[in-house]
Specification:
mainly alpha; Helix Hairpins; 68% helix; EC 3.6.1.31
Length: 108
């Protein structure tokens, strides 16, 4: 899943901006569909959105198992994969990070 970080991240950006940067890259891949892009392939997969839904399920299971095994490094990695695939799903459904922020804010 190296596609989203193809040199588009800025070391000058604060760490909290990473979700916005990642989502912007996902949106760019959705629009441009560059050849060889893993992200673009999720938007054009023959299974449609089911391909992303399967990845969300897979990464969720892997994060759960890493947590069960007390493997912090693996839990962090699998959680990053889960968040990435969830953001791809958001892009597919015409939602964005601000929608997620608004929902979380309402819960406080």
């Amino acid at each position: 899943m190296s596609d989203p970080a193809e040199g588009e991240s800025s070391a000058d950006e604060p760490p909290e901006a990473v979700l916005d940067e990642l989502f912007a890259t996902i949106e760019s891949r959705k629009e441009e569909l560059p050849e060889g892009s893993y992200t673009a392939s999720l938007f054009t997969h023959e299974k449609g959105e089911n391909a992303v839904l399967e990845k969300v399920g897979e990464e969720t299971t892997e994060a759960i198992l890493a947590a069960k095994d007390d493997d912090r490094e693996e839990l962090t990695a699998e959680s990053a994969d889960l968040v990435y695939h969830l953001l791809v799903l958001f892009a597919m459904k015409d939602l964005d990070v601000d929608d997620l922020r608004a929902e979380l804010r309402e819960r406080f």
